[in-house]
Design goal:
The protein is α+β, with helices and mostly antiparallel strands. It has two helices and eleven strands. It has a single domain, classed as Beta Barrel (Lipocalin), CATH 2.40.128.110.
Length: 202
């Protein structure tokens, strides 16, 4: 065996060892969203300086996370539209009705990520939001915190979706809903999610 061949084999073995160590140092892990420790809110401007405030009570989903490989990261979130709870029964019924989110027809709001890129705690995610029968690409930043509680790894993620409701054909009145004066077009959906480890995938 020539010296060059020996060196080639030694280098190959070295890089294979480094690759194996790096893979084991950052195991791919799946986390299940815990609705009891999470919240998804909804804020819409109303009239001059008022706001409609509501929150979703039922939702579920998973986060797949690998701190060493962004290409494996993903988020799936499903929200029960009819679980929307507002400060008053009248507003709640309006938001759930055919003039709002039409919960009877569109039972779930769905977000499926396409890319999740993280630089330590700061992440940028892009994906598809399905709402009111429409699908739109959205991109937004969020913060990701890795915690250990009761011997289990937890992920805490928080951010805000900002969307235009008319992009999803949420129009409360064909006659009056033209300039976004009575009900603003912009909708803010601030959320904070806690997800509990469901085990390593590799």
């Amino acid at each position: 065996m020539t010296l060059m061949l020996k060196l080639t084999k030694a280098l190959f073995g070295f890089f294979f060892l480094i690759f194996s160590i790096s893979q084991s140092s950052f195991p791919l892990e799946r986390y299940k969203i815990d609705p009891e420790k999470s919240e998804i809110n909804c804020l819409v401007g109303y009239l001059l300086n008022s706001k409609i405030e509501a929150k979703f009570l039922r939702f579920y989903g998973t986060i797949t996370y690998d701190s060493g490989n962004d290409s494996d990261n993903s988020i799936q979130l499903f929200i029960d539209t009819a679980s929307l709870k507002a400060s008053s029964k009248k507003i709640e019924q309006f938001l759930r009705s055919a003039r709002g989110l039409d919960a009877a027809r569109y039972e779930e709001i769905e977000f499926l990520s396409e890319t999740v890129k993280c630089d330590r705690l700061d992440c940028l995610i892009s994906g598809t939001l399905s709402l009111h029968g429409k699908k739109r690409k959205i991109k937004f930043p969020f913060r990701l915190i890795n915690q250990t509680s009761s011997g289990k790894n937890n992920l805490i993620a928080e951010g805000v979706w900002i969307i235009n409701r008319k992009d999803y054909n949420v129009i409360w009145s064909k006659l009056l809903d033209r300039g976004g004066v009575i009900v603003r077009n912009r909708v803010s959906i601030p959320w904070r999610i806690t997800a509990v480890s469901a085990g390593k995938l590799q």
